[in-house]
Amino acid sequence: MSGSGAPGPGAAPCRFAHYFVLCGIDAESGLEPDELAVLYKWLEADLHGKSSGTADKTSGENFDQSPLRRTFKSKVLAHYPQNIEWNPYQDAVNMLCMPKGLSFRTQADNRDPQLHSFIITREDGSRTYGFVLTFYEEVTSKQICTAMQTLYQMHNAEQYSSVCASSSCSMDSLASSIDEGDATSLAKLQRYNSYDISRDTLYVSKCICLITPLPFMQACKKFLVQLYKAVTSQQPPPLPLESYIHNILYEVPLPPPGRSLKFYGVYEPIICQRPGPNELPLSDYPLREVFELLGLENLVQVFTCVLLEMQILLYSQDYQRLMTVAEGITTLLFPFQWQHVYVPILPASLLHFLDAPVPYLMGLQSKEGTDRSKLELPQEANLCFVDIDNHFIELPEEFPQFPNKLEFIQEISEVLLQFGIPPEGNLHCSDSATKLKNLVLSDLVNDKKNGNISANALNMYELLKGNETIARLQALAKRTGVTMEKMTITAPLVEKEKDGKVPCEEVELRDYKLNVQLREVFANRFTQMFADYEAFVIQAAPDMESWLTNREQMQNFDKASFLSDQPEPYLPFLSHFIETQMFATFIDNKIISQWEEKDPFLRVFDSRIEKIRLYNVRAPALRTSNYQKCSTLKEAAQSIEQRLMKIDHTAIHPHLLDMKIGQGKYEQGFFPKLQSDVLATGPTNNNRWASRSTTAQRRKDRLRQHSEHIGLDNDLREKYMQEARSLGKNLRQPKLSDLSPAVIAQTNWKFVEGLLKECRMKTKRMLVEKMGHEAVELGHGEANITGLEENTLIASLCDLLERIWSHGLQVKQGKSALWSHLLQYQEREEKQEHSAESPVAVGTERRKSDTGITLPTLRVSLIQDMRHVQNMSEIKTDVGRARAWIRLSLEKKLLSQHLKQLLSNQALAKKLYKRYAFLRCEEEREQFLYHLLSLNAVDYFCFTSVFTTIMIPYRSVIIPIKKLSNAITTSNPWICVSGELGDTGVMQIPKNHLEMTFECQNLGKLTTVQIGHDNSGLLAKWLVDCVMVRNEITGHTYKFPCGRWLGKGVDDGSLERILIGELVSSTSDEELGKQCRTPPQQKSPTTARRLSITSLTGKNTKPNAGQIQEGIGEAVNNIVKHFHKPEKERGSLTILLCGENGLVAALEQVFHHGFKSARIFHKNVFIWDFIEKAVAYFETSDQIGDNEEALLLQRSSCKTFCHYVNAINTAPRNIGKDGKFQILVCLGTRDHLLSQWIPLLAECPPITRMYEENALLRDRMTVNSLIRVLQTLQDFNIILEGSLIKGVDV
Predict the structure, then answer these.
(1) RUN domain: which residues (predicted)?
(2) Which of 138, 565, 733, 1142 could make an SS bond with 121 (beta carbons 3.0 to 4.6 A apart)?
């Protein structure tokens, strides 16, 4: 846009306006129906499954179809200048000036002029603004009037026959037509909806438009209104209109940053101002209107959806409202910028854009009388729908709240109340009839305004007193501390202006002040939240070239560290927000600023952070969630006021041009035909202009600042925008060009490529995070990921899948496209199942032990997984079901396989999707499934950990060692399974069965199994190899190794044992089809212990002293590491204490070292025997100590030791000696007593009898180092799982 050389003062980048455009009817070509609008109606009828013929006959729609209500083709009649190389003229202007095409009126209709604006976003993200005034001009062409009369005669004949035909159900049609706010009887229909050439005057719409580089809305509006007045006033304007248009196009400069400018309209001067380099960027749309239209609570919710880059659809009858809300909300994003599709006014012909599987912010014009329920949207899983006229929003199902939302709302409402604006919005802004239809039906039928009540005709507040919306808003107002009783809802300021009570400038100044103060409050939130963002930016590249080349592989922000620094309540929002494109672009801009000039938004934001640091010197690491209000409101308002009161620059007055005499004759009510030669080019001599505005040096500064402010110069920036910004983004902005099938196909192809790229990046990110390479490098624990971040990534994967499934849908059914596809697949499969068994992938879950007892195969079935989700009563919506199904498939490592199976039904895919849809692009679909397959490399618990309250069926199998023991015991065995979320309680195992199924509330990851029996019957002794337990929904199988006897008089005499579980890894993809055996059984700690105690064959190698000490160090170190991880990342402490290499096993090795002959008179001796001997000694003898203090300490340690051992011995459980030792170690660790007990045991006399000379426990140095190691656990608050110490009361 901006040229490489510095253009002269009159050159386009520095001009206030770039183009003046005139659109209207082309008298030559006559009445052409707007093909695009007709196509749109036909598509709409097709969507509802009607033929286009019946579409106009359905009740409520028929009146719309009268010729005066139809749309006809408009045309650009003229635009000046023809083209500017900096900002080429766009063909889409006609479509955006008259989004609905031409409209006709008669003298009986309302013909007030209407102002709206639009925005054109180029593919590089730069923007141009258009401001349009639409007015009505009398039709002078006889030919067009005759054509209209003919259309009416045809229409009325058709109407009459249809009304007669439907009179049988006239009551229904009457009710519905009142509902639609339309006139009811045929007589009225003909009176209001007719055109008679002899009686009526026909008017047609025409529009004048200014296209500008910056959004000076107020100034453009005033200029266009004055032009319009000049056309309609009885006196001709002081100068020909060409003079004013020429003046604004070529002689009015842009005000320099931080300055104000006065230029001249037809009747009075117009003032505009521009913020300085360190102020918030220019925004001229009145935020007052946005808050009045939406209400504060709604606005904050929509704002949050925009920040999280959801799909936002604005819906209103009024184009200007769409634009005001869209621009208002995007303005509040500072310092971030919306990075995706942005079309605040979507022309009817571009409705297929709503199919875009990308985040978008679009505005759709609602037709009078149609309500939300009739609007068919391609995808709604992630949609935020904003019905502006009805003050109503629909939000996506799951999204986090904005941090400190209540305090934030409170602060904004204080600003609003200072300006007399009720925070709940002005409900009387919503003049749409649907809101009021039940209240004053009789008035509505008679008011001839088609149900639109004028703003001050009724006391709205009285009218709506009983309304539930008001009641809700009142409750909200009370909650946020705003009293509503005293509040009078004032008529909008515009009304006052008409009465002339308030000078226009004053109203405008108030709007400017309110705008800047509201924006300051929003900007201040981000300044507080991201005050330390710079510390986490990763500057990895030495120069710009290498950064651009490796952009895709690089992490640009240390997300994990940033989140770990934030206050807990902020996390749900921030973890989502830092994944967005707008945040990534913001950080990219920061990195790029080391090589080139800073992005203007970034410059302003950074200077504010500097300011915060100067004012309150807080430690950057200390993040609090204390709410800090904005302190710069007064200054911001003052700087604007000063600029508007003291004008810095004045532009040249409009003047007579060198025009041909006799052309452009003034005719009241008609816009003259302009002389194009005088408007096509600017003045040749710019001296007047240059000398008047500023010196050459100032001009250079202005140009520089201007290019910064629009940010459009510099080839590097261009290259950066193309390359870096296209990352992770599917399509920055669709072209608003002609709609040939080729263009639509190309747009869709871009979508397909973008979706694939996004899928690749998301899966890669999920893998990297989960495997945690970066996390390890950055010192964040081992290969782990915060539950929060994992959840965010999975939620964004769910969102991506929904977007892929809703791309190119033929007909939409339900809110979730994926779930609707699954349901149709299920229906087809179940039909086939009745006729034949459907093919089922072979289960990967067959577990087989040496004994031949197996866990039966869990069949892999897409339909079965759907049924599991359908049975979950907690989930109420289709979007929720689709998400649960994705989570379940991901946890089972079947997501790619399931989706492949779903898409293998090509007939169904063809029925549901258009040819261009992503799911019907063979190659891309294969790549997409391949990317999803890569997620099988890691374990997710994203289903188990989210749906914590559902009932889950489990299956357990007890596997005995048959060679050495009987398979079935005669006693009554029982089992109790515990997990991170709870336990099953004791369950009796049916007699003579080794397998059982049971259902209970989700246990989470399984941790321990308690197994035991009552020792009854002849064959009570039982040697159990292991217990297997499987979650029948997720397929996760846990193995609980035992390898010990259960029975009196065998092994350590235990009748119950606590077994520690380990997840059995599922088989790799190569083996997917094969039946697979359990991986070779790992030696469980208990097995090793049993052998080292009882077998004297000496075959198994005992660990030496060095290895034992190393084992203790390792075990303690693991526990320390566990507590240094963030809480959400910690694994199971039970495994670290009692698992294979846990603390209990390591201490057992210490106690076994040098233990004297394990058999005395062929009776096994256990460590517990030594512990009991020590207790007996402590209880009978009085210790002799060196000094009083040591003696007291020793006595209390002895006392607690004896108390703990006795409590374990007297517990009402049949635990064996090794089990008791395990409980003692666990309790000693929990209560930080181990390091006091070890020296007592090392010095008590029984040790000399039971241990050899070289035993570790008899070596003073070893004992001291053991004590030191155990003391490192003193600082941690250790909480033991209930199953480990059940029944032991200390």
Answers:
(1) 788-948, 1134-1283
(2) 733
**What's the whole-number mean pLDDT along residues 695-701?**
46
Residue 945: per-residue pLDDT? 83
Of 661, 682, 691, give the one whose Cα is nearest residue 247: 682
pLDDT band of residue 625 (cuts 50, 70, 90) is low
- Our measurement of the distance from residue 127's CA atom to the centroid of its chain's CA atoms, rounded to an integer in Å, reads 25
Give dist(CA 796, CA 765) in Å, integer: 11
Name which of 286, 262, 288, 289 is nearest 273 in CA terms.
262
Query: What are the tokens at 222?
Result: 């005033």
Question: Please, what sign has the CA dihedral across residues 180, 182, 185, 189?
Answer: negative
CA dist 1104 and 474 (Å) reads: 76
Q: Which long-range contacts (CB under 8 A, 24 or more apart) does 1003-1006 make?
A: 1003/952, 1003/954, 1003/977, 1003/978, 1003/979, 1004/944, 1004/945, 1004/948, 1004/979, 1004/980, 1005/941, 1005/944, 1005/979, 1005/980, 1005/1036, 1005/1063, 1005/1132, 1006/977, 1006/978, 1006/979, 1006/1031, 1006/1036, 1006/1038, 1006/1061
Positive or negative, the CA dihedral 236, 240, 245, 248 is negative
Report the b/e string of 988-999 with b at 16+ CB within 10 A. Answer: ebeeeebbeeee
CA angle 1164–1165–1169, rounded 5-degree value: 140
In the predicted model, what is the mean pLDDT of residues 242-250?
A: 89
Of 79-93, 505-519, 680-694, give the range with the top mean pLDDT: 505-519
- Write down the pTM of the prediction: 0.68
**Please, what sign has the CA dihedral across residues 699, 705, 708, 710?**
negative
- Residue 1091, classed as helix, strand or coil, is helix
Decide if pLDDT at 352 tops 50: yes
| C-alpha count within 13 angstroms, C-beta hemisphere, residue 320 | 15
Task: Quote the CA–CA distance of 443 and 21 in Å, as a whole number.
Answer: 41
Burial tier of 163 (Cβ tally within 10 Å: 0-12, 13-18, 19+): middle
Q: Does the pLDDT of residue 299 top 80, yes or no?
A: yes
181-190, 594-603, 608-617: range with highest mean pLDDT:
594-603
- Please choose, from the candidates 653, 529, 502, 534, the residue with its C-alpha nearest in 3D space to the C-alpha of residue 602: 534
Q: How many helices (H) and strands (E) does the chain have?
A: 47, 28
CA distance 1114 to 1168: 24
Q: pLDDT tens digits, residue range 537-553?
A: 887 777 888 888 777 77
Q: Could you tell me if 706 and 3 are in contact, meaning their C-beta atoms sit under 8 angstroms apart? A: no
Of all residues in the chain, what percent carry a pLDDT higher than 90? 13
Most confident residue range from 500-514, 567-581, 625-639: 567-581
Alpha helical stretches, state H, 215-351: 217-232, 241-246, 287-294, 296-307, 319-331
pLDDT over 70 for what percent of the chain?
Answer: 73
Q: At what angle do helices 1105-1124 and 1260-1271 cross, to 10 degrees?
A: 10
Which two tokens mark 403? 């941090």
Res. 182 pLDDT band, cuts 50 70 90: very low
Residue 1237 pLDDT more than 50? yes
The phi and psi torsions of 492 (rounded to 5 degrees) equal: -60, 155
Q: How far is CA 939 from CA 770, 990, 1082, in A?
A: 8, 34, 20
Please report how the helices 817-835 and 787-805 are oriented relative to each other, as an axis angle in degrees rounded to 10. Answer: 70
